[in-house]
Amino acid sequence: MTELTGAPQGPGAPAPVAPQPPRDQGRFIARAAAVTAALTAAGALAGLVRDQTIAHLFGAGAATDAFLVSWTVPEIAATLLIEDAMALVLVPAFSLALSRRAAAGGDPLATDPVRALLAATLPRLLLALTCLAGLLVLGAPLLVEALAPGLPEHRTAVDCTRLTAVTVLTFGTAGYFSAALRAHRRFVPPAAIYTAYNLGIIATVLALHAAWGVRAAAAGVALGGTLMVLVQLPAFLREMPARREAPKDATLRTGALRTGGPATRTGTPASRTAVLSAATVLAPVALFTLGRQAQVLVERYLASSLPAGAISHLNYAQKVAQIPMVLSLMICTVTFPVVARALADGEHERARRRVERDLTLATLVVLLGAAYVFAYAPQIIELLFQRGAFTAEDTDATASVMRVYALGLLGHSLVGALVRPYFSAGKPTWYPAAVMAVGLLVTTVAGASAAGRWGVYGIAAANAAGITLTAVLLLRALGTGAPRTDAGFRTDAAADASRTGVGARRRRHTRPPLPVSVGLRGVVLTLARLLAAASVAAVAGWAAAPLCGPALPSAAVGALIVPAVFGATAFAAGVPEVSQLLSTVTRRFRHDR
């Protein structure tokens, strides 16, 4: 497969990169998104096979619940160290370093910002992650007791947790590599990591399940994390600049993780400046990420006191339901380095247009998937899991939970897409962490209140309510970060003008500092139209599902009905992206003829 890159390659590549013309950049984004989509789909498919294998061999009982509690460690590590916090901090950092390298024009007397950032952050990160993994191994009994106090298989969960603790180191390394490569516009190796991860789990489970039981799955998680690092290592070594002698008084003239302000000339070493800047930026990102992942912790804590299998039903339902969300965020993953580089270069309007388009595309994908998941949940679960130790009763329970989860998929996707503009400039902002805390509070209180009456369904509904509230608060603030001009767009000049006057000073204290703002009214209108189209498609699919017989033909027919109804309704509602897609397909068909 041909690698996609917009940056110079090779060990000595500090030469400046000419900006891509808009048309060329659009083609690059389209190709990068296509390749990322293919590899993301491959990773999701491997994840389904992984879950099928675990369900087939171990079912949805107490042993599986114990493993899933231990899986909390890699789930948090993946969210914090790969998907959110690491990327949200390091992609802007590397983008800024690349921008400053290009501005230096290959000056032999200047310290390479990319090399300085690498030397200042990677060794300390590896040391910290190694220590943290060791603490988790030692404290596994206390961690399991805190996560699931009512768990029957406590000893099994402790053993599995000690195995999965290794992922703190491997996921952190893999996340660092992914962020650096994406900033260099290398998307293939980062997109392949979950395929390697899941294949490692599957192979280990099949090889060791007879001897180790469910502990084999935990050993597979440890192996899969190592494969995540290895699949990216060659590309990372090729992209990182070769070591070269720097002037004796070399300092990082501007902190590698800072985005503005005068040059640093106080004699502070580059490493100390970068580390302090990293800590300042990382803290709010990490708290946001932990708050988001804590929803899973709340679910498992509440479900640990329910009958055996409750955690497993929640897990299988969530794993399948989140596939549309993962696919919807694919385009945001590809364009996040583009937004960060545009802000590093001072092109705020280009960043704003890209963010607005990403929100619409992410919503389109996730709502189409949510409509299908809601309409055909029983058929999907039966096809994927109902074999071996996974019974028909497990299918009914998991499908019902998955339908409740589907109600929160839009919120999950929007939170993932909306948080990127907040952190795209590499500046600290606490607003996302604050609103995520509000959403987590709603999830916790609602889940504790509903679990006793409605069991796992109440827990899933609380999750949907909390994440949807978080998405609403993030979107509202992102749409009020700067005033509109007469043309309906936000501009830097308008933003500067808004900072004068008493009312503007008051707004500056109540609104988060945003590098990017969006047209709230237009975005909300588009979201409402897509939500209406998804609702119509879900009802149509749900009504047609019983008419098509067994699970396989029913799900296959639904894969035609739901997109057709969704597309027709969205087109009738005037969603621009749907009209543009149909126009593109029509032109291509006429051209081929």
TrEMBL record:
InterPro entries on file: Lipid_II_flippase_MurJ/MviN, MurJ
Gene Ontology CC entries for this record: plasma membrane
Transmembrane regions listed in the UniProt entry: 28-49, 125-143, 163-181, 193-212, 218-237, 274-291, 321-340, 361-381, 401-423, 430-448, 454-475, 518-545, 551-573
Sequence segments annotated as region (Disordered): 1-22
Main location: membrane
Compositionally biased region (Low complexity): 1-10
Any GO BP: peptidoglycan biosynthetic process
One GO MF term attached to the UniProt entry: lipid-linked peptidoglycan transporter activity
Keywords: Cell membrane, Cell shape, Membrane, Peptidoglycan synthesis, Transmembrane, Transmembrane helix
Compositional bias segments (type: Pro residues): 11-22
Glycoprotein is among the record's keywords: no
Membrane topology category: Multi-pass membrane protein
Domain of life per record: Bacteria
Locations listed in the record: Cell membrane
Protein name as it appears in the record: Virulence factor MviN
Species: Streptomyces armeniacus
Source species taxonomy: Bacteria, Bacillati, Actinomycetota, Actinomycetes, Kitasatosporales
